[in-house]
Amino acid sequence: MQALYDVPAPAKLNLFLHVVGKRADGYHLLQSLFVLIDWADTLHFERRNDGLLQRHDSGDTLPPDDLCLRAARALQAATGCRLGADIHIEKRLPAGAGMGGGSSDAASTLIALNRLWGLGLTRRQLLDIALPLGADVPFFIGGRHAFVEGIGERLTPLDLPREMRFAVIKPEASIATKDIFSSQCLQRSKSVAIVAGFPAHNSSDAKNATGTENGTDSDASETVVETVRLDAEGIAMLAGGFGKESFGRNDLQKPAEAASAEVVQALVLLQEQFGNSRMTGSGSAVFAHVSGKDGIDEQSIANISKVLPSKWSARICRSLTAHPLRGWLED
Ligand SMILES: C[C@](O)(CO)[C@H](O)COP(=O)(O)OP(=O)(O)OC[C@H]1O[C@@H](n2ccc(N)nc2=O)[C@H](O)[C@@H]1O
Ligand SMILES: Nc1ncnc2c1ncn2[C@@H]1O[C@H](COP(=O)(O)OP(=O)(O)OP(=O)(O)O)[C@@H](O)[C@H]1O
């Protein structure tokens, strides 16, 4: 195979995100519902026989050693592959948005080069290469919506009962994930969800979720344990936005609101227009569940766009059925 063109790298939204513990190395343990949406970067890959990796960008400027190059190098190192690639990135996803843009680019690069270079690695094998690249990369390799735990490595895949739609606003300001996790305003969730009755989930244990099992967290004594089933009803409850009240919170939202007035402004705009609003990941993008018929939400977002400051973006996004590259990997 000489080239792979038009490879998508979709974004994610965190419908809720609870910080439930902290590891000894300072990384925070999370519980979050990750949903894949139809806002995506597009990548193109051309094989090189000289082993070199070169990136060519269109759209926003990326760091010289971006996550795609780091992913490609990690794949070469893990497999001893001597092939290289020209990687073209059409960057559409805003960086520092909490939508996982860089992580998704890295995941699509691993999946595409595995194919282009004929390496035949399985999803399981790529997951091992993915985590050191970034906490969100395993989710995108997983290829399905998921209840995510740990720092992002424990995935319980799930299907949404039906398509969901969201109004998403990305303010001009971008937010560095590190600043939010180290904020004085960050407060730990006092409740931990235990997933019950789901065969793929083999660690249904609160101690495991909070880090108390291996002695990494000493501040989890007041934890309230809540049992959630990942059947259709349980997923609908966790996902919110199907006519029920949204589940949980985003614990990173308060620190982000303290850090950026633009996040507050965007949340207020969505709340006024759609009656709900929440931040995704570590921000700065925010979203609202929408369910209007006959293009009414598209019209509302078009009206909002007219009054937004320049360099802000707003759009209606839909949940995907699954990651478009899901079929490219054997489990
Ligand atoms: C907030 C999320 O977007 C949720 O999807 C992700 O957990 C963030 O993942 P990411 O952007 O890939 O973050 P990384 O690049 O791995 O981490 C950036 C920095 O944020 C902090 N960090 C990140 C993830 C985490 N679970 N706990 C942390 O404390 C660490 O200081 C880390 O050095
Ligand atoms: N291919 C890439 N695309 C976007 N950002 C990249 C890429 N490679 C490296 N980065 C760097 O990673 C940082 C985070 O970008 P990204 O878009 O992943 O953040 P995010 O939207 O906050 O995602 P997350 O939900 O993972 O926190 C930025 O500072 C950016 O410079």
Summarize this entry quickly.
The chain is α+β, with helices and mostly antiparallel strands and 331 residues long. It has ten helices and twelve strands. It has helices at 67-79, 101-116, 123-130, 137-142, 177-181, 206-210, 232-239, 253-259, 261-274, 296-307, and strands at 3-22, 28-48, 53-59, 84-91, 146-150, 154-157, 165-170, 191-196, 224-229, 278-279, 286-290, 313-318.
What can you see in these coordinates?
- This protein is of the alpha+beta class and 331 residues long.
- It has a single domain (3-322), classed as Ribosomal Protein S5, domain 2.
- The protein has helices at 67-79, 101-116, 123-130, 137-142, 177-181, 206-210, 232-239, 253-259, 261-274, 296-307; strands at residues 3-22, 28-48, 53-59, 84-91, 146-150, 154-157, 165-170, 191-196, 224-229, 278-279, 286-290, 313-318.
- Strand 10 and strand 11 (286-290) form a beta hairpin.
- Helix 1 (67-79) runs parallel beside helix 2 and helix 8 crosses helix 9.
- It is globular, with a radius of gyration of 20 Å.
- It starts with a strand and ends in a 13-residue tail after the last strand.
- Mean pLDDT is 90; it is low at 198-204.
- The protein binds 4-diphosphocytidyl-2-C-methyl-D-erythritol and adenosine-5'-triphosphate.
- 4-diphosphocytidyl-2-C-methyl-D-erythritol (CDM) binds next to strand 2 and helix 5.
